[in-house]
Specification:
The protein has seven helices and seven strands; from the N terminus they run E-H-E-E-H-E-H-E-H-E-H-H-H-E. By secondary structure, the protein is of the alpha/beta class. It has a single domain, classed as 3-Layer(aba) Sandwich (Rossmann fold), CATH 3.40.50.720. A seven-stranded parallel beta sheet has the order 3-2-1-4-5-6-7, sandwiched between helices. The termini are far apart. The mean pLDDT is about 95. The structure holds nicotinamide-adenine-dinucleotide.
């Protein structure tokens, strides 16, 4: 078990990817706090697991403080923080209202900042008493290259990438590693919403047709699953990754390695 005796908190822990991370962490022996807006997150019908649920709106500093106070009271340390809460808004900049722009930055960027800021005292404690602590942020391949109609989302993920490097530089000397996982297309409620939206270039086909077409443009001929992402997050959380910090780990089935002409 790679995470035995570790304590982890996962924001967006009841969403598609967050849920798979919680399940994997539990399997690896960690005590897991799943932090989300609601018990069911983005997956209304999914079964719950043995994670301890924390109600958290990542845009609220009071919520961030309260979540860390709960972890402190119950466990007295935090070894692993995963900032997986996120939203996307499917618009060009012209279609994006200022309120929507501010909302996506509040969740994807400010949320990562606030949760990490208030986790640091507990993580420093864990790092000092053991083998180091690990923060894993969620970027996206959209922080490197753009999907059509996702302007504010792409910008917010670029900001998370830069924040990840800055946090790694500042907190590495304290024994806290900071990385970002940058997924490509992963089959979750977020991706299904994107392909059902008007701006995705999906051309109005059925969801299954669109997903098949998307798989076909990957060099690996498949989309990712939440479990694929959880595999990498688990490694970054583990002591095996002691030399890994400040990096943006793209996990996209080779999609962003491929020149577009290969699709013609
Ligand atoms: N699915 C993909 O293809 C993909 C690709 C690249 C990056 N990502 C990133 O991975 C992360 C997880 O995405 P997902 O696909 O699992 O999405 P999802 O919609 O299934 O899950 C996101 C979760 O975040 C929660 N959330 C939203 N706003 C919140 C808030 N203010 N406070 C707390 N929780 C909040 C939601 O309730 C939901 O449970 C996101 O950061 C996303 O941007 C996903």
């Amino acid at each position: 078990m790679q995470l035995k005796d570790k304590v982890a908190l996962v924001t967006g822990g009841r969403g598609g990817i967050g849920r798979a991370i919680c399940a994997r962490f539990l399997k690896e022996g960690a005590t897991v706090f799943a932090a989300d807006l609601s018990e069911h997150g983005s997956l209304e019908d999914a079964a719950t697991d043995d994670s301890r649920f924390v109600k958290l709106d990542v845009t609220s500093e009071a919520d961030a403080k309260a979540a860390m106070a709960k972890v402190d009271a119950e466990c007295g340390r935090l070894d692993v923080l995963v900032n997986a809460a996120g939203i996307e808004i499917e618009h060009t900049i012209e279609q994006t209202s200022l309120d929507d722009w501010n909302r996506i930055f509040a969740i994807n960027v400010t949320g990562t900042f606030l949760t990490s800021k208030h986790a640091l005292p507990l993580m420093r404690q864990a790092a000092a008493s053991g083998t180091g602590a690990s923060i894993i942020n969620f970027g996206s391949y959209d922080g490197f290259i753009a999907d059509p109609g996702l302007a504010a989302y792409c910008a917010s993920k670029g900001a998370v990438h830069a924040l990840t490097r800055a946090m790694a530089c500042d907190h590495g000397p304290e024994g806290i590693r900071v990385n970002a996982v940058c997924p490509g297309y992963v089959d979750t409620p977020m991706l299904r919403s994107f392909f059902s939206g008007e701006g995705s270039g999906a051309g109005g086909g059925s969801l299954d047709t669109v997903l098949d077409a998307v798989k076909a443009v990957h060099p690996t001929r498949t989309c990712g699953t939440p479990e694929d992402i959880a595999n990498l997050v688990n490694w970054l959380a583990s002591d095996e990754a002691r030399y890994a910090s400040g990096q943006l780990w793209v996990l996209d089935g080779g999609l962003s390695a491929q020149v577009q002409q290969m699709r013609l």
